[in-house]
Write a structure and sequence with these properties.
about 210 residues, alpha+beta, 2 domains, two-stranded antiparallel ribbon, 5 helices, 7 strands
C-alpha cells in the first residue's frame, strides 16, 4: 500500500502523519487549533495526544543521553593498590585527566591518602607487561627457561612463590590489605615480568 501521493511509506512519512493534527480531526487556522474538524478523524484524538507525549518524552531522553559525556572504562578497576598505604584505588576523572586514586582520599584523619597515578600510563604499562609475560609462558603457566638465565629464572620462580603465599594469607585474612601491599612491595622483583602480579591479579602502584 502506498501513500495518497503514490509514494512508498517511510519512517519520515509516518512521523509526519503522527505529528499532523488533521489525522486526529483537529481544525487548524494560522497555526492555531480552532476546534474539531468536520471530517472523520483517522486517529482518535486521545490516542494521537498520547502518541505525541510519548514521542516527546523519548526525544527529550535521547537528547539528554547524548549530552552526557561518555563514561571512561577503567581497565584496572578493583585491581590497583595504592603504593603508599596498600588500599585499593578506584578510577576517577581528575582535572589533569583520568587516574586511579587511593580510596582513602575522602578520610579526614591521619589515614587520609590522596595518592594517584595517571590511568592511561598505568594501563599501557600493565598491558605491555601482560602481553610480554603471556608470550613467554609455557603451557603449564611457568616462564619458559629459554627466555631467562638459570639464576634469574630461579629468582623469578621464588618471587612468584612468595607472591602466591602472600595472596593465600591475604585470602585467608591472615594479612590486612595494607600489610599485603607492604609485603608485596618488599618482595624482590627481578624483572618487569613481575610488575603485574600474575599470581594474585593485583598490581602495586609505586608512582605518585
Amino acid at each position: 500500500m502506498r501513500t495518497a501521493g503514490g509514494k512508498a511509506w517511510s519512517a519520515g512519512t509516518v512521523r509526519g502523519l503522527l505529528d499532523s493534527r488533521h489525522v486526529a480531526g483537529i481544525r487548524m487556522h494560522q497555526g492555531e487549533e480552532v476546534g474539531p474538524g468536520t471530517w472523520p478523524a483517522i486517529i482518535d484524538a486521545g490516542v494521537w495526544a498520547e502518541v505525541r507525549a510519548r514521542r516527546e518524552f523519548r526525544s527529550a531522553a535521547h537528547k539528554k543521553a547524548l549530552s552526557k559525556p561518555r563514561q571512561r572504562y577503567y581497565l584496572l578497576r578493583g585491581l590497583v593498590m595504592c603504593g603508599r598505604c596498600g588500599t585499593l584505588t578506584s578510577g576517577t576523572a581528575k582535572t589533569a585527566g583520568p587516574a586511579y586514586q587511593c580510596n582513602r582520599r575522602g578520610r579526614n584523619d591521619e589515614k587520609k591518602c590522596s595518592r594517584a597515578i595517571v590511568a592511561p600510563t598505568l594501563e599501557d604499562f600493565v598491558s605491555d607487561a601482560a602481553v610480554k609475560l603471556l608470550s613467554e609462558l609455557r603451557v603449564d603457566g611457568r616462564l619458559a627457561s629459554g627466555n631467562l638465565s638459570e639464576g634469574v629464572a630461579e629468582e623469578v620462580e621464588d618471587d612468584q612463590r612468595q607472591l602466591a603465599e602472600l595472596n593465600d594469607m591475604w585470602t585467608a585474612k591472615e594479612l590486612s590489605t595494607a600489610e599485603y601491599g607492604r609485603c608485596a612491595r618488599r618482595s624482590p622483583t627481578v624483572s618487569p615480568r613481575l610488575s603485574a602480579e600474575s599470581s594474585s591479579g593485583r598490581w602495586c602502584s609505586s608512582t605518585a
